[in-house]
Every structure is written in C-alpha cells, then in structure tokens.
Amino acid sequence: MMRHSTTHPPAMPQNQNGNGRPRNGSGGVLAALAKSRETTLFVVLILLIGGTALARPQFLNLQNLRDVLLNVSIISLLTAGMTVVILMRHIDLSVGSIVGVTAYAVGALYVAHPQMPVIVALGAGLLMGIVAGAINALLVAVGRVPSLVATLSTLYIFRGADYAWVHGGQINATSLPPEYSRLATGEVFGIPTLALIALVVLIGLSVYLKQFRAGREHYAIGSNPEAARLAGVSVEKRVMMGFLISGAIAGFAGALWLARFGTVDASTAKGIELQVVAAAVVGSVAINGGVGTILGATLGALVLGVISIALVVLHVSPFWEQAIQGALIVAAIAADTLLARSVAKRMMRKRDHG
C-alpha cells in the first residue's frame, strides 16, 4: 500500500501526516481507520469479486477480467488527475469534454496522416489536453472564477466546439493503423497494454504527490489555503499546475479512448466526469480537500468498474448502477464528515485537558 512521505511542507498542520490525515496520537481508532481506508476499499473490492463469482461463476473468466482492466484504465487515469484538483478544494468538470474533443482530434489526424507514429498521436492528445487545462487554470487561478463554475462552463464550451467541428461526422476504427489499435488490444505477459500504460502514469503521479515538495503542497493548500500561503506556498501556481495535470491526463486519456473504442463522435465520453468524481470520492479523496491518495482513487475506480460488470453478469438493470454510485458517494462523504468531526472533538478535549 502506498504511503505518503513523513516530510511535510511548512503549511501542513501539526496533527496531520503527509496525506492530510490525522496522526494516530490525536485520533486514536478513528485516525487508524482513516489510514486504512485504502485497505478497506481493497477488502470491499475482493468481496465484490468473490460474491459475484459465487453467484455467477462465469464472472471470473479472462474476458471479464480483461474488460474490467481496460475500462478502468481510462477512468483511473481521469480519476488520478481529478484527485490532484480535489486535493486543493477544487473540481474539474470539463474532463469528459476534453476526452471527447481530443479523441476525435487524434482520429482526425490519423485520417489526414495515416502514417503518423503512435507516439506523435499520443503527444498530440497530451498537448491538446494541456491547452484545455491551461484555460481552466487561467480562469480559476488568475480570473478567480470558482472552479465549479469555470469548469462547468468549459465543459459546455469544449463540447459545443466539438459538436460544431464534428458536425455529425464520425471516426471509425478502420481509419486507425493496426499499431495504434494494439494499444488496447495488445498484451504484455497477459496484461493489457492499456492497463500497463495507465499503471505507469498512476505510479508517476503518486510519486510526485508523496516525494516532491510541489506535490505535497497540494495537500497543504487543501488542508488550509491561508496557512499554506503564509508558509510561502505559491497557491495560484499550484492550482494552475493541478488543472494543467488534470487537463494533460484527460487529453492523454482521450487519445487512449480512441485506441480502446475505435469509433468516436461528438458525444464521446459525454457525462463521464460524474463517474470520475464518484470514483475519486468513493476512493477516499475528501471533497473538501487535503485528504486522498492515487491508490485510493484507483481502488475507487476499480470498485465502480467491478460493480458495473457485476450488474451485467447478474442480469440486474443498469439503472441500478447510478443508484449504487450515488449511495456510495453519500456513504463516503458521510464517513469523512463524521471522521473529521470526531477527530476535531477529540483534539479539543485533549487541548482542554492539556
């Protein structure tokens, strides 16, 4: 299980560890529970897989497991990027539109240049995502527009521009070279290439957050923005970096989406931002900032991905998927709220008696 470094930026409150959670000394059992949220999610994931397999043994076939890995790979990437933003008490609702426009744009590049190298196509998606992320970053960090309003606006702007550009058109898998499609169909030691690509990005982002001062400053800002500012943290710079990371990952995910599904149009990835937020919150990323890990966010995406496949295998109406996601979000937020209140009360009692 990944753990954050015990070295903190100056703005980190003294009662918190590297991921913004209370230390054992101040929170007792509740603090231990907070630290074990990733373990709890892993146990829930195993129970989901085991329970579904008992009800429908065919669930544990290689194709279902491969589908889970492929589907969760893209969602987990987007959730990781969203995690960086949420850590600072912001949100990026534009990721679905960025995925859609970059997926179509990379496909259009292949239509115009069939011999384009795969690395160039992925780089193009990454670059377009950075541009979109920069727009969000300027609106939020420089323009001081609330991130909810700013990214909701760019969600519609990017999607509207996509519809105007596509104009009812479509990119088909036949327009893509075989080597590009192999990003999704290929395997290394039985593991889908797409999942391995996602894993590399997730590990890199996790190392950034826990090993680099810039990454730990995201936690400090989420824990207490004013304290972080007084401690010398450039809040605007870190907020801009967070939105650039989220945009870059969304653009990269858009390029991978094209390889995964082959056929894209103006409605590609529409509404996926809600699934990404759900995965982050279920994965113990606190919506009020300062708490969360890439591992937890990834496990949240895996839990939701397994639930989606399990409902299909169990022949349950897909409408229940959204209901379950909503219930999990409420449960996660309620747990975080109760935990924060209980720890705060314990600290107050300790201070009063100290």
Notes on the structure:
The chain has a single domain (37-48, 61-338), classed as ABC transporter involved in vitamin B12 uptake, BtuC (Orthogonal Bundle). It has helices at residues 24-35, 37-55, 62-86, 95-112, 118-142, 147-166, 178-185, 193-211, 213-223, 225-230, 235-261, 272-282, 294-313, 319-353; strands at residues 187-188, 191-192. 47% of the residues are buried. The chain is an all-alpha fold.
Overview in brief:
Helix content is 72%, strand content 1%. With 354 residues, the chain is mainly α.
- State the major sheet: 2 strands, antiparallel
Average pLDDT value? 87
From N to C, what is the helix and strand string?
A: HHHHHHHEEHHHHHHH
Strand order of the largest sheet: 1-2
Secondary-structure blueprint:
Blueprint: H1 24-35, H2 37-55, H3 62-86, H4 95-112, H5 118-142, H6 147-166, H7 178-185, E1 187-188, E2 191-192, H8 193-211, H9 213-223, H10 225-230, H11 235-261, H12 272-282, H13 294-313, H14 319-353
Antiparallel strand pairs: 1-2
Helix pairs in contact: 1-14, 2-13, 3-8, 3-11, 3-12, 3-13, 4-5, 4-6, 4-11, 5-6, 5-11, 7-11, 8-9, 9-11, 12-13, 12-14
Key attributes of the depicted protein:
disordered N terminus; ABC transporter involved in vitamin B12 uptake, BtuC; 354 residues; two-stranded antiparallel ribbon; mainly alpha
